[in-house]
Fold this protein.
Amino acid sequence: MGEPRVTSAFPPRDTAVGGYLEPIRAGGAVLWRDGGGGEPEIVLIRRPDRDDWTLPKGKLKNGEHLITGAVREVREETGLTPVLGRRLPPQRYLKDGWPKQVEWWAATPAEPGGAIDYVPNEEVDAVEWVPMKDALARLTYEHDVHVLDNFRAGPAETFPVIVLRHLSAGEKRAWRDNDLLRPLDEAGRTDALALPRVLASYGRPRVVSSAAARCTESLLPYSVESDVPVRTERAFTVRGTGRGESPEFDVEAAREAFEGILSEGRPTVVCTHGELVPHLMRGALDRLDAPVSQQLGLRKGSFWVVHVAAGGVLAGVERHAIRG
């Protein structure tokens, strides 16, 4: 018999005692604008209690959605409202011996020109637009430098196409009328009221929806709050006239309509049905010459965000649920 295998009695330094501790969750954004000369400017903040320069970020509140939490933290620390672009790789590091995981996005300011109107306080006493080269030199922490490196490695300017599976609409077998008229249930209506804030994190995307009531109702609060009309699209509609009947839809027509949206270069949210979501995503990824995941389906009330750069280049894909 050979010698017994000897293993270290201690985990690597970058893991927690026992192998795992639930990380502190945080979110932030690389706020950028065109600085002229082909180099973007980046927002940096200074925290007086730590005497450091860093990127705007902060811890999520209990139960807070990752997307809206990141937007809130950036707004609180800079006075600017970020419009999220492509998602960047997360950063994970130890904070006072406990793991912290920060989710990052590229973002542009909603305010025209990105004019900073921020009152210094004890948490953040300076907010500045800094040229990229100077920002890399000024940042205090290596993990923030990595975030900027990830930002520089991909396209800065992108647009989102959001594929939303409609919100909860009860059980189909319990509905006795035409299935196109089946409405949202109580849980679906609650989520519909939460959806506007989530979608607003991506700016003011237009709406293209299945004509089914459960789809148009999913986006009705967003449409009213953002003053964005809902355009219905027959190709995204799954039809069924009664219980026990097979759903009817045209995959090719749906994929063609979705490819048209991708080619228009406009932020858009498409609300459709679970039967069509995998077909739309597979068609989009094929068109963008990207690898195709085996898990393209969505639960009700979940959505994909496909970030596309100029020239039809895939810049990122992320998936979320309305309830976080």
Residues 186-200 form the longest helix (15 residues). Residues 9 and 115 are 54 Å apart (CA to CA).
